[in-house]
Amino acid sequence: MHIVIAGGGLVGLTTAASLRRIGHEVTVLEQAPEIRAAGAGIGLWENALRVFDDAGIGAEVRGLGQQIDTWFFDPAGMSLRANGYGDSDYHFLLVPRPALNTLLAGFIGRDRIRLSARLAGYEERENEVVVHFGDGESLHADLLIGSDGVYSQVRAQLLPGSEAEPHADHYAWRAIVPSADERPEGTVVTIGPERTRGGYTRVAEGRTMWMVNQFEAGPRTGSKRDRALARARRLADAGWHGELLRMIADTPEDAILENRIMLVPPLPRWTGRRVALIGDAAHGLSPHIAAGGTLGIEDAGVLRAALETAPNLTEALKAYERPRIERFERVRQFSADVEHATGPAEFAERYAAFSHWMLTTAPGHGRQAG
């Protein structure tokens, strides 16, 4: 089949790599003039790494990242973990997004990626889907995959009225900076007062990512750096996290990413006759569970398996859609539980329950990544 993928971000590129691996012709449409990454680092859990293994690039992806052993902290620096969970429930690979996207684009082939390609709409026909561009050009394909994020143009046409919604006045600040004398093992997540969370971790050799977020952030004054520092100070009792404060203070203003968090509401369906939504276009999540990218990559693996095994496209899209919608009903419940944890200990307990569930119920569980 010829498959057009709208969106050249992480999930779109992973989907293209996975489908090309099983013989499909792929064309990736990216409206930006270059392949770039929205964000600093991405956490990849075991279920995502299996998808990269199946695409034939698992070793290369691992080579880009830093293994993270997750710990949670209170604002005084006391470490916390929930009892009753194994080490694997706390381990993920943190990878710089730009390097990962560059790797994927090279694997797919730059000639299969169309840059500055703005999707204007599509027409589903009996035997094809016609993708229309903003400049009037059209492209004929067998399947269109919408991997174009929370503001998805594909979703807007497939499901009018499904616009992304602000999440609880939730903002996040982050940046990747040169490593200095901070703890090499990082602090991952500190849970502070006023619904503020944050920390830092090594993302690659010589590079550290810091991140701060707050639900119900209220008025935002000053520069991005000022706003991030104001929240980070709530995570720094009695000298704990002084290095986080220094890191933020030394980060150039234009290197700081500040995002208002948007959510995609639960959707009644993810597919049409020859259209499928994937990743954030289908289920844009809050980053506080640190698994949106992993679960989007998991989507790509499920869609690949469905297209490989189903007798026809109609059955393949059903086999993809049904289990993913059911899975994300549970993901949203876990996400709400973690968000509304009343303190650091309860946060640690609820997050471990989520990561354990995600890993032990993921497609291919029991088959080790690598």
Automatic annotation (TrEMBL):
**A Pfam short name:** FAD_binding_3
Q: Which Gene3D superfamilies match?
A: FAD/NAD(P)-binding domain
Supply one GO molecular-function term: FAD binding
Q: Keywords in UniProt for this one?
A: Monooxygenase, Oxidoreductase
The FAD-binding domain extends over: 3-334
Q: What is this protein called?
A: Salicylate hydroxylase
Q: Which organism is it from?
A: Amycolatopsis saalfeldensis
